[in-house]
Amino acid sequence: MLDSLFRPRSVAVIGASTKDLSIGNRVIKNLIDFGFTGAVYPVNPSADEVRGIKAYKSILDCPDDIDVVHMVIPAKFVPQAVEDCGQKGVKHIIINSGGFSETGSEGAAIEKDFLARAQRYGIRILGPNCQGIINSDAAIRAYCNFTFTKPDPGFISIVALSGGVAEVVHQAFAQMGVGTRIYASNGNAVDVSIPEILRYLGDDDGTRVIVTYVEGLRDPANFMRTAAAVAARKPILAMKAGRTREGAKAAASHTGGLAKEDIATDLIFKKAGILSFRDEGHLIQAAAAFATQPIPKGNRVGIITNTGGPAVIATDVLVGAGCTLPLLSETTRAFLKATLYPEASVGNPVDVLATGTAQHYRACMDVMMQDDSFDCVFINFVTPFFVDNESIAREIVAVNQQRRKPMVCNLMTDKQQWSGVVNILRDGGVPCYPLPGEAARAMAALVQYHVLRSREKEAVQRFSDVKPDKARKIVDKARSTGRNSLAAAEVYGILDAYRIPVAKWRLAATPAEAAAAAAKIGFPVVVKADAASVVHKSDMGGVALNLSSASAVRNAVAQMRKAIIAPDLRFFVQKYLPDGLELIMGAKAEEGLGHAVVFGLGGIYVEVMQDVVFNLTPVSATEAREMLAAIKGAPLLQGVRGQKGVDQDRLTGILQRLSQLLTDLPEIQEMDLNPIKAFADKVFVVDARISIK
Amino acid sequence: MLDSLFRPRSVAVIGASTKDLSIGNRVIKNLIDFGFTGAVYPVNPSADEVRGIKAYKSILDCPDDIDVVHMVIPAKFVPQAVEDCGQKGVKHIIINSGGFSETGSEGAAIEKDFLARAQRYGIRILGPNCQGIINSDAAIRAYCNFTFTKPDPGFISIVALSGGVAEVVHQAFAQMGVGTRIYASNGNAVDVSIPEILRYLGDDDGTRVIVTYVEGLRDPANFMRTAAAVAARKPILAMKAGRTREGAKAAASHTGGLAKEDIATDLIFKKAGILSFRDEGHLIQAAAAFATQPIPKGNRVGIITNTGGPAVIATDVLVGAGCTLPLLSETTRAFLKATLYPEASVGNPVDVLATGTAQHYRACMDVMMQDDSFDCVFINFVTPFFVDNESIAREIVAVNQQRRKPMVCNLMTDKQQWSGVVNILRDGGVPCYPLPGEAARAMAALVQYHVLRSREKEAVQRFSDVKPDKARKIVDKARSTGRNSLAAAEVYGILDAYRIPVAKWRLAATPAEAAAAAAKIGFPVVVKADAASVVHKSDMGGVALNLSSASAVRNAVAQMRKAIIAPDLRFFVQKYLPDGLELIMGAKAEEGLGHAVVFGLGGIYVEVMQDVVFNLTPVSATEAREMLAAIKGAPLLQGVRGQKGVDQDRLTGILQRLSQLLTDLPEIQEMDLNPIKAFADKVFVVDARISIK
After folding, report:
1. Which residues, in sequence order, are CB contacts of B200 under 8 Å at separation 6+?
2. I need a labelling partner for A78 at 20 to 30 A (CA). Which of A564, B356, B405, B492 fits?
3. Residues 284-313 of B with CB under 8 A from A
4. Which residues of chain A make contact with B216, given a CB cutoff of 8 A?
5. DSSP string, B518-579
6. pLDDT given for residue B534 in this prediction
7. From the list A149, A385, A640, which residue is nearest B21 (CB)?
8. Does domain B296-453 have CATH number 3.40.50.261?
9. Percent of chain B at pLDDT above 90?
10. Given CA atoms A262, A599, B634, B268 in this order, what sign does their dihedral have?
């Protein structure tokens, strides 16, 4: 569908200009300079030619079929120009001009107008208020864009609404000497969307890795679905900005959107299998590695170096990012001892010394490529004047081109003095970085993607021992009475329908009933006043903990009756569980995405520590286990200091049941299971709240 | 003292070589190429000239006084050559050769030999096994070094034992177009030390900022003392590597040192007022800002941008690092509204739009420089082809040269196409970065240094209500009996001497005595078996908590007597405090530095969360308060969820008393006050251990 946008045979520019410093001129210059393989048609009512190319009065006069039209004309002329394009049978229009919805209601009306016309003719629109696209494929060389970065052909494609960041990223690749494939920035994105472009890049064989930047998602569900499908085939590396309140505000001010901090984007990235970055530099450096390197099969890195300190830095970064540095086998050590200089250090890192030769590097690389104990090879390479650095570079390239295991290189050199070395490594597809930390983080990203990709892909379990009808009835009844917040008995009824265990409870209307209920439940109990009209039960004396006798229960209820006057006042009697590990689960509806589910340690300490982890529904068994493992307090679940751990299988089951419940009841807006008490062999929800829409 | 090392008038090279790829040749080439302003004397027994310069058979034949000699000869010839230098009256020797202590005992003996000879003649040695020094001062141009980075003159000086990392950092500045001043890498550092060089750089007016890299410190106390004195006058930016166990191992393997993780280096950095970095890239980027920018007076940043997304990224990074983005005043907004394009966004960030002109940028900069609400100005500057970018660059430079407030610039450009812009900004001393995150982190580092520098410098309080003699006696007595671990009564005696409050306690020998003690203390109590021979009291049933009656105490003691057979068995009866916030304090001797002191939340949760903070003795009142504020659980100290906080004044007092105790008793190796129970109006140590040397 987008093929003729990204691989056009002909490009016309409506608003082509003879003025050097205008976009209508620049786009034509860029097409020419970049060596566009198709035809270029300037459209200008008064000029005969633009940049030496014959110009036409109208798009209708162009003698050819037009795949892509650039529009660089004031907003108010766009609808008619779109109409003309429709007549002409144009396939795509890139609207570079601004002045549409980003400026207010008048512009929005024009946007609506031209979009309707385009749709009538089946024309696809990129933009408006956008940069356009670039395709560096030698068969195309389309620079349908007014920016200034002229990429070498490469394997990285870039897509973002924000032209500013897309261009920064693009520029960074160019300065690193890393080629790019397709570039697309679609501004207001009224028609061709980010997910649609992602899908196209997923199908594009020349794209090995996709880089994207977002400040928020227009259609999160569609984005997630598409990204997940694409990410299953090739890596997507993404960064989300506007993470701080101030950042979100800045994002809103330049996109005209609403300022809001969101956690959903991160969850979508995770769920879709997108590798997420918080630093655009790290993203760029990682992408350069993904462009040429295979994905490792594990996290075990071998380091080869000819200088000490930078290997220490690389080691710190790799280990800090979850990689390990296996020891060399005895045989390998003996072999390297005999091959390298006597003073060389044959550990991991292997230090071949500054005087180390190409043969020394080669021996180390061969050993690590052959040895199954290593998944990746990290090269530190400083270029001393007294060795044959170009030969070392050639050996690195030779091993890299075997594509057995991923390699990255911290090349510590003067790019001017040692341009030969730089060129050999670049042309040989070795990702090179000037700092050890950068190279190490790029390698760590490859490993992290391996971990992401090797996550068990399993169907989400649907429990059959549940009673969705019962839960549905409870929710429908509450909705029919216009209530947003459910009563405790309703909440527990829903949990019960999904077999989420709740500490034993009964409802009572009088002190005597409460005492009888307590006896059935077994002491100690807690008594809570329950009435739709009572919101802050505990503030009003409506909660009595740890009641150990019938008389204590009767007294507590009698006191509550005095303190709280409500016609629907009842008493909720529940088993009191003083021990157990306090946990929380919860959920919040995310528009179009289901629910964000939270899990964490409960209690006052952890309220302060905020040790929680999020996921999106539906939650699979693996994801539930990952959630348990992801909190900092995970050792408490497993048991520390000789204490027994808690029933983690039951907890993962509850998370999955909670997920099923939320999927069945999309009306649930917020849900809190807080606290949950977990024991070695059982788990109980002790308090819970649900609000519905 | 080091002046003639860093500003030599004459350099001789013993081991000067006619072979191009030898260090003995390269050093001479580097001196010539870099434009050394002094005389160069190759010393070679057989060559008449080296690189066109007359060579001498012996250092004794050189016709001039020699400030610096390079030695590039095998280790075994070095002692005699040093002897010759002594005869000649040479001031400094840079020994580039290796083969000394880093290779084993034989080399170590040679090292000892030449050092003794040098000292006899008053010659100072840099190295051996080192790169040497560089001084880019136009009056000197000394490249006494065999590396390949030729720096432009600048204001950053670099010093490190590790030549590998020093060179990487140096190279990075050169690639950024940032000049450097003095470079020194001293390898084995048998004589001229890092602290000595730091002191020299502190006195060097041309050095505005010092960059250093360490993997460990030879003489921590000296380093800290010197660094603190220097850092009081100019910024020191440092990175420590070998942070992970594996990294420490890698560091040990290339320095021949011992692998150990240390926390002391970080504490030394903090105590000395050194800005510490964990990422060499961040350090480099920050140094470039320190080189030309004034230190801000606060953390309030104004952002000016001509593109949206990159300003969002910068905002996230700045806010995440503790900066704030104040709003523009109404007057300012109105003024900018009238000055900028109508579509411009006059918030903070101010977006002048891609079409924004030099006048627009200037207006925004002037406003932020004048307005007292801003401490720093952050510029985002992409170079669209359709505006006069060089004029914008010139305005940025003009404002920068006022040096009113620090500025950094995220310059998003193609350095080749827009070399004019790049050069204007570089020559104008504007620190430029290609990525918004990099620029923002550099700015944040300026702000962090401001915070560091404005810490209250106060004398450490010495409490006069203490009894150091009493504590000294306890320690001396234990040492005289050869014990390393103190008995509970001794520990509490020491705490008592420093008026660190301990939960009431008494010692008892029999069940009856214990019951009587408990009655005096007040119930409930805890009873602990106490005997030098009993290490794992609690494992052997030697601890009984929460005893509420005399009979319970008697029974507990009787049982312990059965379970634990020890001639010196006594019973430690102490007030039981079931409530209160559980905290820990502790200390560990750090060779040459006093003690590292730790403070944190106690209990099982926090054992898992490891929410602790360290400092070095002596601890001032401000530092103690900073420690309390630095733990993640700090809100618990202040009080959360309506709970009362704890007595923080008393806690800071205890930390200071602990510090005084440790200073008076340097024999203490380790000390644990765990737990400490803190209440709204009091604090008690509940259990404590001390081990001595």
Report:
1. B1, B2, B3, B6
2. B356
3. 284, 303, 307-313
4. none
5. HHHH-SSEEEEEE-TT-S-TTTTT-EEEEE-SHHHHHHHHHHHHHH---TT-EEEEEE---S
6. 64
7. A385
8. yes
9. 83
10. negative
Residue type, A263: I
Domain with CATH 3.40.50.261 in chain B: 147-292, 296-453
What's the DSSP call for residue B429?
T
CA atoms A531, A532, A533, A536: torsion sign: positive
- Tokens representing A285? 């450096």
List A277's β-bridge partners, or say none.
A239
pLDDT (tens digit per residue) in B336-373: 999 999 989 999 999 999 999 999 999 999 999 999 99
**Both tokens of residue B366?**
């002037």
CA–CA dist B615, B391 (Å, integer): 50
Instruction: Return the CATH number of the domain spanning residue range A1-146.
Output: 3.40.50.720
Q: A581-692 domain in CATH 3.30.470.20? A: yes
Q: Name the class of domain A148-292.
A: alpha beta
CATH architecture assignment, domain B147-292 = 3-Layer(aba) Sandwich (3.40)
**Better pLDDT: B648 or B457:** B648
Distance, first Cα to last Cα, chain A: 39
Please state which architecture CATH assigns to domain A504-576.
Answer: 2-Layer Sandwich (3.30)
CA closest to A603 among chain B residues: B605
Judged by CB atoms closer than 8 Å, whether chains meet at A386 and B604 is answered as no
Q: What is the pLDDT of residues A636-645, one digit of tens each?
A: 999 887 778 9
pLDDT digits (tens, 9 = 90+) for B387-425: 999 999 999 999 999 999 999 999 999 999 999 999 999
Compute the distance between CA of residue A418 and CA of residue A404 in angstroms, rounded to an integer: 27
- Least CA distance to B151: which residue of chain A? A414
Q: Are A244 and B385 a contacting pair at CB < 8 A? A: no
Let me know: does B278 contact B243? Beta carbons within 8 Å.
yes
CB contact under 8 A, B254 and A351: yes
Query: CA-CA distance, B643 to B640, in Å (whole number)?
Result: 5
Which residue of A276, A285, A605, A636 is the best one to mutate when testing the B interface, meaning the one whose CB has the most B CBs within 10 A?
A605
As annotated, the residues of chain B forming the CATH 3.30.470.20 domain(s) are 581-692
Where do the CATH 3.40.50.261 domains begin and end in chain A?
A: 148-292, 296-453
CB–CB of A247 and B319 under 8 A?
A: yes
Q: Which of A327, A289, A304, A297 is nearest to A208 (CA)?
A: A289
pLDDT of B642 higher than 80: no
Q: Where do the H-state alpha helices sit in A522-592? A: 550-563
| Residues 6+ positions from A633 with CB-CB distance below 8 Å | A600, A601, A606, A609, A611, B605, B608, B609
CATH 3.40.50.720 in chain B, residues? 1-139
Are residues A159 and A185 in contact, defined by beta-carbon separation less than 8 angstroms?
yes
Chain pair A-B, CB pairs under 8 angstroms = 262
Domain over B1-139 is classified CATH 1.10.10.10: no
Q: Is the pLDDT of residue A88 over 80?
A: yes
User: Within a 13 Å sphere around the CA of B222, how many CA atoms are in the beta-carbon half?
Assistant: 11
Q: Is the peptide bond before B434 cis (omega within 30 degrees of 0)?
A: no
From chain A, pick out residues whose CB is under 8 angstroms from the CB of B166.
Answer: 309
Strands (E) in B607-681, as ranges, are: 612-616, 668-678
Q: Token pair of A538, please?
A: 């505990």
Is B21 near chain A, with CB under 8 Å? yes
Domain with CATH 3.30.1490.20 in chain B: 504-576
Question: What single letter denotes the amino acid at residue A167?
Answer: E
pLDDT in tens, A475-493: 999 999 988 889 888 999 9
| Nearest CB partner across the interface for A171, out of B162, B312, B414 | B414
